[in-house]
Amino acid sequence: MPGYETQKLNVNVGALQWKIRALSDISQYADPEGVAARAGICSASWSLFGQLWPASRVLAKAVKHIDIDNRRIIELGCGLGLPSLVLQSRGADVTASDHHPLSKKFLVYNAALNRLPDIPYLDLPWTSLDQTIGQFDLILGSDILYEQNHANMLADLVGHLARPKAKVLITCPGRGHRNRFSRLLKEKGFELTETRLPFSDSDKPPYKGRLLSYRRGF
């Protein structure tokens, strides 16, 4: 037994259905060797990677039709990796990244579950400025601005990872930290287009959820 329980979900993204293995609930915790603790992941946040959040579904739907030709793409904080799986199915040059010790294991399983090749994966702390990673044309993330310090960390990381001509696409359920992140990206030359979207069937306009699209060099 791995020390945690899982479930398999059927997820509709447009007309297609995906199978996703996720943690059975948000109360799961298993870190017997202290790997997550050494990575800075506490027991309260350990299970977050293993949930299929509404923002991930919205991002997966958004990437179904984006231009992928000659674009190097990275998903930050991929968790279960649904947007990366959708892009992989389209033949995109996509890399998934996270810093949770189980994220790669779940990503590999979910790719196989949907009969897809393994997706390239990076263990990428948001404080990392590793020069060997290279740069990307498109940077993705779903609900990654949920802590106060995330705006600064992610703006610095985007500045490091983004090519001079690049796009950043983030789905946000209405976090206040997005405003600081947007200001910091503006200082790096990015222009924001913001679209309000429902993140669940019960959402009513004006929607709190947003698709944040940042462009530079276009």
UniProtKB/TrEMBL annotation:
Protein name (database record): Protein N-lysine methyltransferase family protein
GO molecular function: methyltransferase activity
Alphabetical UniProt keywords: Methyltransferase, Transferase
Lineage of origin: Bacteria, Pseudomonadati, Pseudomonadota, Gammaproteobacteria, Oceanospirillales
SUPFAM superfamilies named among the record's database cross-references: S-adenosyl-L-methionine-dependent methyltransferases
Protein's GO biological process: methylation
Pfam families on file: Methyltransf_16
